[in-house]
Amino acid sequence: MASQHSFPRVSLPHDRVVIVTGANQGIGYHTAKWIAMMGATVIIACRSEERAKQAISQMNAEFLEEKKNGTEGLSDLEKLNVSFMRLDNSSLQSVMAFVTEFKVTGLKLHVLICNAGIGRHKQEYTEDGNELIFQVNYLSHFLLTAHLLPIMTTSGPDCRVILVSGAQHQFGHFRLEEIQGKQFKEETFDGLHYYRRSKLYQIMQMFSMNRRLAGSNVTVTSLHPGAVETGLLDAFDPVKIDKQRKEVRFKQPFEGSWTSINAAINPSLSGVRDVFFADSQPSTESASTDARNETYQEQLWEYTLTCLKDFLTDDVIEILTGQSSK
Ligand SMILES: NC(=O)c1ccc[n+]([C@@H]2O[C@H](COP(=O)([O-])OP(=O)(O)OC[C@H]3O[C@@H](n4cnc5c(N)ncnc54)[C@H](OP(=O)(O)O)[C@@H]3O)[C@@H](O)[C@H]2O)c1
User: Fold this and answer.
1) Domain containing 116 — which CATH number?
2) Which pTM was predicted?
3) Which domain holds residue 62?
4) For 181-223, how does the pLDDT look when each residue is reduced to its tens digit (9 = 90+)?
5) Within a 10 A sphere around the Cβ of 14, how many other Cβ atoms?
């Protein structure tokens, strides 16, 4: 049986601009498609141009199909306003190139959905020297958000940053000294724990970033999309996933996108910050004690700025710290 929650079908202005990372498949695909089908301008930030372009064609074909079927809540556009910009979260240079490309468009930015992610992974370090899961799921999204904040803070009311986290964060414990995991040998490195921790960091970022953005037009929320049948599951132990499938009903990817879409477009959530949603319901009490620990949040914040020090410009530092670097 389908879940009981969904999202309101609202008409989004064509000049409402939304970026969704990792939107060529899975939850991100349906999130981007539906937000575009309701009228917004959507940029899908993906690492493969080929997969992204295929996804855009498929979104347009499905849009026409939905129109034919008389689906409620579709925009009057003939073709979706979706475009691709390259973003590879395993490279901080790639994040910076994305930011430059976006700035050249001169577009405003109203919603940033940090959705791209990888699951459990063997121990691996990026060209920037960071543990891969930490960088792809958390650190690059932090850098992206930081550089887009100066645009969002001048884009008018109700701008939203949405961090797609997950319930697995509850099993990821915060240990500052273990963030990079370099003290572990390949065989003792626990890739599942590093996935869980990356989801924890995203919720911690929500709280610490909101403290800096209090009183501004930009809010940060975070969410658990549910257990969803996507390619991400291939990274986990198939026996454990099968066991879970017997205990809970896994959602199809479209259903898995509902919590993200709701957080992005529900008018009743305008101005709402510091909320962790699960199945579109506020569920902040289900954020772990580590996620809500302000000391840990600030430790992570400081460590993050250290990792990103070569990539932060004055305007960004000013927003993140309230002070100019000079
Ligand atoms: N599925 C679940 O049950 C579940 C539960 C809780 C949370 N989540 C979260 O939901 C989000 C979406 O995951 P999903 O389930 O939809 O998985 P998915 O189908 O595997 O989609 C992941 C997306 O992230 C992209 N991606 C991976 N590495 C990237 C990189 N280095 N740079 C840019 N993009 C990259 C992938 O692109 P490619 O196609 O190029 O690989 C893909 O578009 C993730 O953050 C995940 O942690 C999922």
Assistant:
1) 3.40.50.720
2) 0.97
3) 17-321
4) 999 999 999 999 999 999 999 999 999 999 999 999 999 999 9
5) 12
